């Protein structure tokens, strides 16, 4: 599998800095204790991205959403053989290998291909599954595209940065090639006639065909190196003892052909998922996403305002030892994408302090919001007439009391609409935390799309939820604005 997600390249580029920030190195010590550490902890932490059935996805079991799929079964077998508990840590695929490198997890099981390029950053186990490559096509075009050879000159889509993208460039250079970040988007483009074929792994193609009566598949016919195109487990560099133990489990899996059983189990869960693909059936997913999105936005804004006040007071200070750091912080945060900041907090700071994904997301969003709030407050303070300060001083108020009782209250009244806009922006922009596995609305959107094979309906539901959130918030903010103006 060569799947990738938004931010994967940024994540890889950040790894050296994250390692330096965490005081870590990419090279393991001479004394490899990777296996012993897991046994001492009694827990095997595994990173995965549950939006790619049948390898990894989510299903409702006894009313509870759980990770299932072939890769999850492989992880369970490894944990069982090691005699430890299994802890699955969900995140965006582009973050899984970074999580391995920075020590957030012990291994990544995401059906990832052990290419030479990836071997420069992480170590891999033996191949535990090789499913081959195929193309998804519309069933009505089955006679037209009886084999992959007929696709030369056609419109072919693949996932951005994937193995399939590399192969299509090599074998179908005479075709019109395009790529997207998400496989469901590619399938929707195929079904809507924007693409003639979509390159995916054979098990993925078979899954879509089984659950979509309008689709068919043809073998890609590639000549492949199985050592680079099969699925393997990823470890941090130098984790020889852990890799050896995992390879023993993989040998057992292959000897008893357990991947066949794992795929049958995955097929059962997929069939259960598609019995009822109505959005009401998945209301718990959207509800949980709504709760997490709301929590992130509210907490981030509260701490963002508090930190923003501190930053603006520092920036307006006559002491350069305070004003310079505040100015530098504001400029750096405003000059870099929030996605990079989320990755840095989770993998950089998280390598020193083991932060849960949700907490790391809240911290990153709050730190980002604080920089913008600081500038909003500064603008509000500067908009006040200088006579306000002089009047306060004339009645004996010191600088602190003047700022506290005279300047800030009036400034907040003036900037209330801007602060409201910032709150609304945080609600929407906090969706970026899904890349580290925070189950917000966007994360749940991708899970539902993967489970139901419906491309549009989940998007519409999430759009409506976001609209209702921001519309309600806007009305509430306007109410308080009118009240302040009346007062």
UniProtKB/TrEMBL annotation:
Residues passing through the membrane, by range: 285-313, 343-367, 455-477
Record membrane topology: Multi-pass membrane protein
CDD domains linked: TM_PBP2 (cd06261)
Subcellular location per the Swiss-Prot or TrEMBL entry: Cell membrane
UniProt name for this protein: Periplasmic component/domain (HisJ)
SMART domains: PBPb
InterPro entries: AA_ABC_transptr_permease_3TM, ArtM/GltK/GlnP/TcyL/YhdX-like, MetI-like, MetI-like_sf, Solute-binding_3/MltF_N
Residues covered by the ABC transmembrane type-1 domain: 290-474
Top-level division of the source organism's lineage: Bacteria
Chief place where the protein resides: membrane
Keyword flag Mitochondrion: no
Signal sequence, renumbered to the chain: 1-30
Alphabetical keyword list: Amino-acid transport, Cell membrane, Membrane, Signal, Transmembrane, Transmembrane helix, Transport
Family: Belongs to the binding-protein-dependent transport system permease family. HisMQ subfamily.
């Amino acid at each position: 599998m060569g799947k990738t997600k938004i931010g994967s390249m940024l994540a890889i580029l950040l790894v050296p800095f994250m390692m330096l920030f965490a005081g870590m190195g990419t090279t393991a010590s001479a004394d490899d204790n990777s296996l012993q550490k897991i046994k001492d902890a009694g827990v095997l932490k595994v990173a995965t991205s549950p939006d790619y059935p049948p390898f990894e996805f989510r299903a409702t079991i006894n009313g509870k959403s759980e990770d299932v799929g072939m890769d999850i079964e492989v992880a369970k077998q490894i944990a069982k053989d090691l005699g430890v508990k299994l802890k699955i840590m969900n995140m965006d695929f582009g973050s899984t290998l970074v999580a391995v490198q920075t020590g957030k997890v012990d291994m990544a099981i995401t059906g990832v291909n052990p290419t030479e390029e990836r071997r420069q950053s992480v170590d891999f186990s033996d191949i535990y599954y090789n499913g081959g490559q195929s193309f998804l096509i519309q069933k009505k075009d089955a006679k037209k595209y009886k084999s992959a050879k007929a696709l030369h000159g056609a419109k072919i889509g693949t996932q951005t940065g994937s193995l399939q993208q590399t192969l299509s460039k090599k074998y179908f250079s005479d075709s019109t090639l395009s790529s997207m970040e998400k496989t469901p988007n590619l399938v929707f483009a195929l079904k809507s006639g924007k693409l003639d074929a979509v390159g995916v792994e054979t098990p993925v193609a078979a899954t879509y065909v089984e659950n979509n009566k309008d689709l068919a598949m043809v073998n890609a016919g590639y000549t492949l190196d199985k050592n680079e195109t099969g699925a393997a487990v990823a470890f941090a560099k130098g984790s020889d003892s852990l890799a050896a133990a995992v390879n023993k489990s993989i040998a057992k899996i292959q000897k008893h052909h357990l991947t066949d059983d794992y795929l049958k189990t995955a097929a059962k869960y997929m069939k259960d998922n598609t019995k009822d693909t109505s959005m009401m059936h998945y209301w718990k997913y959207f509800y949980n996403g709504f709760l997490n999105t709301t929590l992130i936005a509210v907490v981030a804004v509260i701490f963002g305002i508090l930190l923003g006040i501190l930053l603006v007071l520092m920036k307006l200070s006559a002491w350069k030892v305070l004003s310079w750091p505040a100015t530098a912080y504001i400029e750096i945060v405003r000059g870099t994408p929030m996605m990079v900041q989320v990755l840095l907090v989770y993998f950089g700071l998280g390598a020193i302090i083991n932060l849960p994904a949700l907490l790391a997301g809240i911290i990153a969003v709050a730190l980002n919001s604080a920089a913008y709030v600081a500038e909003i407050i500064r603008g509000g303070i500067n908009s006040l007439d200088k006579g306000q300060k002089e009047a306060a001083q004339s009645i004996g108020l010191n600088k602190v009391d003047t700022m506290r009782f005279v300047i800030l209250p009036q400034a907040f009244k003036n900037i209330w609409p801007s602060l409201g806009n910032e709150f609304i922006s945080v609600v929407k922009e906090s969706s970026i935390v899904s890349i580290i596995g925070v189950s917000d609305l966007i994360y749940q959107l991708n899970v539902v799309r993967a489970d139901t094979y419906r491309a549009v309906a989940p998007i519409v539901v999430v759009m409506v939820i976001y609209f209702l959130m921001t519309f309600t918030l806007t009305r509430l903010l306007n109410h308080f604005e009118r009240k302040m103006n009346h007062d």
